[in-house]
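User: If only I could read backbone structure tokens as easily as an amino acid sequence. Those tokens are not coordinates but codes from a learned vocabulary of shapes. Could you go through the record with me and say what the backbone is doing? Here is the record:
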Amino acid sequence: MLILYDIDMTLLETDHIGITLLENAGRELFHPEFTAKGISFGGSLDPVIITQMLVNNKVDNSPENISALRRHYHAGLDRTASERPVARALAGAHELVNATREHTGIDAIGVLTGNYPETGTIKLRSAGFNPDHFVINAWGDASPHAEPLRSHLPPVAIQNYREMKSRTIDPEQVIIIGDTVHDVRCALDNDCRVLAVATGHATSKELEEAGAHLVVDDLTRTQELLDWIMTTPAHR
């Protein structure tokens, strides 16, 4: 079994520091009015966010400009994290991560996230998680397609599992834990199970209507969540 965690508003919160730092980077690189206004961040992928920001601010979305904005964002987050915490863990997150990592019936845990690996790792470490514990990952830049979607990421994680473990895994043995309807949809699109947590902007009702197999208010009931994770999946 493979457990894949979303990062922002599932494991941790950052008070939207990524938005602030991306705007600061854009203003330093391109023009003083650079803004994130009109961008939907929740459940999106960093490469998509950066491209949309460039387009919205009438800056050429060339590979060079995308790379420059990514580098400046990383540098800003790294610098800030060296001065103060940039993220804090949400209730129950450490306990569930530890429980799933240590359970003998779970092969591995990882992240499935819109974050770039370099910035997602900083957030995890700042919130007290050991990034090395997440061994099979699908980061926001991992889509093999020219127009990346979150639904492209579960197959990446499944392929990484196959390469690491030298065996295949049934998608129903892959559980995605996230806080947005995008997390739910990317799981369902790939026949994975999904545990949705209403700690982000989506309501429990919205997550249920999106088709989540289980919706909870937070991750605090560790044993109940672990029991659900270890049950035989119901066919939907």
